[in-house]
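JOB MANIFEST
job_type = single_chain_structure
chain_count = 1
residues = 190
[input]
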Amino acid sequence: MHRQPLLKLLRQHRPVDPDEQAMTQATIDFVEQYPNCFDRSLLSGHITGSAWIVSPDRQQTLLIHHRKLDRWLQPGGHADGDPDVAAVALREAQEETGLTTLTVVAPPGDNSNSDISQTVAILDVDIHPIPARNEVPEHLHYDIRFLVEADPTEPLGFSDEINNIQWFTLETASNYTDSESIIRLIRKMK
C-alpha cells in the first residue's frame, strides 16, 4: 500500500512533547482513514512535506516569508499525490529557495540507522489550519517535516510564493515567529 512507508515513519518518530505526540497520533489516524490523504482534493485536509533547512554546523536555519500566509516559515508544500513525503519536502525546498545541494539528514539523537540513504527519519510532525481561500474551504495540513542540510553560501533564488528568504541564526529565527511549531523546530536543534 502506498501509505505504509509513511505510516512506518510516523510510528518510528519520537515526538518531543505531548502536543507533538497527539499530532503524530492524529496524523497516523488520518493516513489510516483516508487512502487519498496525499491529494489536495481531500478538502478536510491532506499530507504536506516540509524541509527544516540548516547549515552543516546546525547553527543557522533558512526561512522563507510566505506571500499568502504573511509569515516566516520553513519551505514545504503539498504532496499532490506523491506518497514519498521526504521527496516532496526536498522538491518544495528546491522550488522555494533555489538551492540545489540539499541533503536529508538524520534528526539530532536519531540512532535508528547510520545509513540515512536507506532510512529517512521524520524530524517533526505538525497539524495546522489553513484559512479558506476562494473556493477552497479552511482545512488542515498534516505536515511531515524532515531535517535538511544546505550550504549557506550557495546563492538563493526566489519563487512567486515568497516575499523574502533569509538565513538566520537559531536565536535570531525565534525573533521572527510566534509559531509554536517553528519554535519547537528551533528547540530540536539545540
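[summary]
The chain has five helices and eight strands.
The CA atoms of residues 23 and 148 lie 22 Å apart.
exit_status = 0
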